[in-house]
Design goal:
The protein is built from 16 helices and 9 strands. The protein is of the alpha/beta class. The chain has a 9-stranded mixed β-sheet, sandwiched between helices. Helix 2 crosses helix 4 (120-132) and helix 6 crosses helix 13. Residues 20-29 have a biased composition (Basic residues).
Amino acid sequence: MQLRASVHTSQSATSVSARAPKRPRKRRANFPMEKLMEQFLEQSVQAEDNFYRMEEQRLQAEDRRREAEHARELHMLQMLGQMFSSISSSSSSSTTSGPAATPSKTALSARAPVPSSASPLFISSVFERYYSSGSTSHSSMDDDILSLVKSIVPPLTSKKHKGQDGRIGIIGGCQDYTGAPYFAAISALKVGADLSHVFCTKDAATVIKSYSPELIVHPVLDSPNAVEEIEKWLPRLHGLVVGPGLGREDFLLKTAKEVIEKSKTRDIPIVIDADGLWLVTQHPSVIHGYQKGILTPNFMEFTRLYEALHHEPMDSSDHQRSVLQLSVAMGNLTVVLKGEQDLITDGSKVISCSVEGSGRRCGGQGDLLSGSMGVLAHWAHAASAAGVVRSVNPSVVAAFGACSLTRQCNSQAFQRHGRSTTTSDMIQEIGSAFKKLFES
């Protein structure tokens, strides 16, 4: 009986299992697109952080190398000083005591040991490099160019009418970026422009207007006839700044490209920054060879632009050579490589702006630079047409003035606010910084 029951039980279990439907195997759900994009952005941020970390390590190594080289040169100078002083003392003693007091070569070498590798050419180069690298030469060069900047600043008189000292247009401002065009436009006004226009997208206009009632805001950048809407304002503008808050949507970049072309036909000075440089990277011909154009890339933007034109990695060990090469490749366009020292060139020579700033690098500082540069570019080219500036490229003068002003604003704001310094704090310093640099 037990055997029969067990057989029956096993048969019933088998029949139940046969009737039960198979449980479908779980399949791993596909990641949603948002998750993939999030992972991609995280990887991009991590890659950029790694790049900056490696670049910082490289710069630190370069600083250590230069310090070691400088220490060797100082040591060489000390030995040369000892040698010359011993020669001088021996000459004076020989004059008073006669030939018997002349020191031997052995004694001289014992007092002033000079390496056998120190040839006269090497000694001469050491002196030349030591004195040419001093702060005095940089200061005198800065003073010379600052005097040129002072010469282009128009005087304030009651005989002028509104708009005569500058009407500047900013091409930029979209839903994601409203601060950048505001910073550029308000900086242009603070430097001395009479009117400042912002040509932005419709959804950015109200936000930008709320920042300041002093700006003229045109919500036309994303309209179907954007180029026509902006073009009708070009005859009234003295300078154009393209890029702050522009974004990288194809339609907006296409509009900016056509506006640049229209502005070139009217001989308007053009400063290109931020996303405008992304446009130039894709279409270098849009500004190639335009002598009233200025590019203001940071290191990352400069690297992209350099590699797009030269089709090879940039030599990051020699920034002066690289910025010179890029300017020449762009038809001797004025290029400002922003960094520890701003490098400015029009393809003929490189000028370094070393006005002291601070260690605080806040977002929006480049917009202050581009906005002020738009005004100074108008003043510089107007002064050149009047014969005031002759020996130097007016765009270079404007670029140096804007770089100096931005650094001075940064320094003054940092003295007041320290680590909490923001671009809004820097903008409040424009008036006093301008007066200190260009009106004192």
